[in-house]
């Protein structure tokens, strides 16, 4: 059974990239529904898919993130992975779709969940903004802040992989990927002329698709006057080759096959190399323990 890839809003569930892209599970209104409904929904996902990977933005309402951790704790399940990449919302949606593509392949849940961290390195994400006065995700100079109050000013901002900000103008661009990518443009309250006319050609995008910017984009960027963009690898065979070319290991705590240095499901990191001194445990000899999970006080009415 394929691992379920879940997102926290319908606008993060992008249309399929190809015929193999699996549907996204939308966990809508987690902060407004009764706790027992959230628990039942996750239990149904686990029964149907075995494992669930939830990909969500750092701009998600705090109550939603708290509910996710509460449900995971109540179910006492290491089969639920919560992944919050340091990416703008449109790029989070792109990453979730890439995982939906890979979920159709012969990858174990641990490798699939670990692939999320790997694939972030191949995303170039940013936005065209009408103001940077409330932008706190990328360093902004005092001059840029002052210019943002000038009517008609627009700023091109690259948030990932290396933050950069320039004043948008014809012929002015941002550093792009050095490999072939597609471009997804998320429409907001600004015209997309600079993105489609200047940025896309300079990045030599192999294809262009458009959608609406996610609702969380205005929170992440500090303004609704934006056009969001993300360059990404679209071909499933390339994604699969990237993931399978990385050496796999086995999580020493839960026994799941993973790539990278941390298991996304149980959050365990590899133990120190053999022979490395470890501090003594108060109750006995040194031993590997899983990382502490956040403990939240539960009330009768919610998470």
- Please count the beta strands (DSSP E, at least 2 residues each): 12
Q: Which range best describes the helical content: under 10%, 10-25%, 25-40%, 40-55%, 55-70% or over 70%?
A: 25-40%
Distance between the termini: 29 Å
Oligomer: single chain
Overall, the morphology is: globular
Query: Uncertain regions: pLDDT < 50 for 5+ in a row?
Result: 275-303
CATH topology heading of the largest domain: Rossmann fold
> How many distinct helices?
8
The major sheet is characterized as: 6 strands, mixed
SSE pattern, N- to C-terminal: EEHEHEHHEHEEEHEHEHEE
Q: For the largest beta sheet, what order do the strands appear in spatially?
A: 7-6-5-10-8-9
Compute the average pLDDT: 86
Radius of gyration: 21 Å
Please tell me the total number of domains.
Answer: 2
Q: What is the CATH C-level name of the largest domain?
A: Alpha Beta
Strand content: 15-25%
The CATH architecture of the largest domain can be named as 3-Layer(aba) Sandwich
Description:
- The chain has 2 domains: 4-121 and 239-259, Rossmann fold, CATH 3.40.50; 123-234, Hypothetical Protein Tm841, Chain: A,domain 3.
- It contains 8 helices and 12 strands.
- It has helices spanning 35-49, 62-75, 89-102, 109-119, 142-147, 193-202, 217-221, 236-244, and strands at residues 4-7, 25-26, 52-55, 80-83, 124-129, 155-160, 164-167, 182-187, 208-212, 226-232, 248-250, 257-259.
- It has a 6-stranded mixed sheet with strand order 7-6-5-10-8-9, sandwiched between helices.
- A hairpin with a 3-residue loop joins strand 6 and strand 7.
- The longest helix has 15 residues, at 35-49.
């Amino acid at each position: 059974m394929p691992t379920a890839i879940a997102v926290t809003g319908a606008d993060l569930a992008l249309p399929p990239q190809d015929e193999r892209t699996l549907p996204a599970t939308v966990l809508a209104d987690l902060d407004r529904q009764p706790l027992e409904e959230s628990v039942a929904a996750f239990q149904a996902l686990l029964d149907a898919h075995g494992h669930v990977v939830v990909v969500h933005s750092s701009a998600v309402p705090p109550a939603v993130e708290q509910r996710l951790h509460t449900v995971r704790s109540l179910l006492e399940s290491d089969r639920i992975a919560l992944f919050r990449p340091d990416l703008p919302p449109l790029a989070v949606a792109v990453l979730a779709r890439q995982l939906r593509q890979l979920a159709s392949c012969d990858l174990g849940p641990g490798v699939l969940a670990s692939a999320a961290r790997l694939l972030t390195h191949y995303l170039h994400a940013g936005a065209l903004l009408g103001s940077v006065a409330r932008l706190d995700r990328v360093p902004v100079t005092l001059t840029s802040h002052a210019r943002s109050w000038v009517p008609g000013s627009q700023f091109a901002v690259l948030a990932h992989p290396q933050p950069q900000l320039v004043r948008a103008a014809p012929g002015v661009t941002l550093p792009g990927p050095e490999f072939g990518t597609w471009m997804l443009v998320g429409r907001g309250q600004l015209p997309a002329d600079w993105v489609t006319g200047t940025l896309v050609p300079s990045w030599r995008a192999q294809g262009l698709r458009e959608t609406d910017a996610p609702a969380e984009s205005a929170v992440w960027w500090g303004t609704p006057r934006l056009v969001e963009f993300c360059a990404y690898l679209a071909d499933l065979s390339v994604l699969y080759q990237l993931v399978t070319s990385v050496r796999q290991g086995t999580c020493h705590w839960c026994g799941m096959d993973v790539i990278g240095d941390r298991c996304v499901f149980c959050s365990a990191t590899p133990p120190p190399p053999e022979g490395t001194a470890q501090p003594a445990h108060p109750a006995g000899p040194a031993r590997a323990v899983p990382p502490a999970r956040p403990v939240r006080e539960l009330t009768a009415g919610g998470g």
